[in-house]
Amino acid sequence: MKDFMFIYQGGDPDWATKSTPDEMAAIMGQWQAWMEKLAASDQLVTGGSPLHFSGKRMDPNKVVTDIAAAELKELVSGYSIIRAETMEEALQIANECPIFLSPGVSLEVREVVQMGNC
C-alpha cells in the first residue's frame, strides 16, 4: 500500500459564518461518515485538518507577503492522507470525498514519497 495526500483547494473562506448550524452539522456528518468508512477499511492514515484561509508567504529572499484573495481558488484549504494500492484507487476514493459538496473547490492527489532511513 502507498500513502496519498489529498490536497483540498479553494472554497468559500466564509462558509462557517454563512452556514446555519444544521447545514454545518450535515456537512460535518458527511465528512465524518466518509472518514469512518476509510478508517474501517484501513485506508485512512490521517484525516488531516482544515487550514485557515489567511496566511503569509515567504520567498527565497525572506520577503514576507500576505496570501492574496485573488489566489483563493488555488489556496490550499486542507488535507488528508489516505492509503491505496495505486493512484487509480486513490482517485476512486477521492471521487467520494465530501469536499465536492462545496462550490469552487478542487482536490489534488499526490503520492507521498517514502524516504529511506537517513
Automatic annotation (TrEMBL):
Q: Where is the YCII-related domain?
A: 22-114
Q: Which PANTHER family match?
A: BLL0086 PROTEIN, BLL7171 PROTEIN-RELATED
User: Family per UniProt?
Assistant: Belongs to the YciI family.
**SUPFAM superfamilies in the record, alphabetically?**
Dimeric alpha+beta barrel
Q: Please indicate which superkingdom the organism of origin belongs to.
A: Bacteria
Q: What is this protein called?
A: YCII-related domain-containing protein
This protein's species is: Enterovibrio coralii
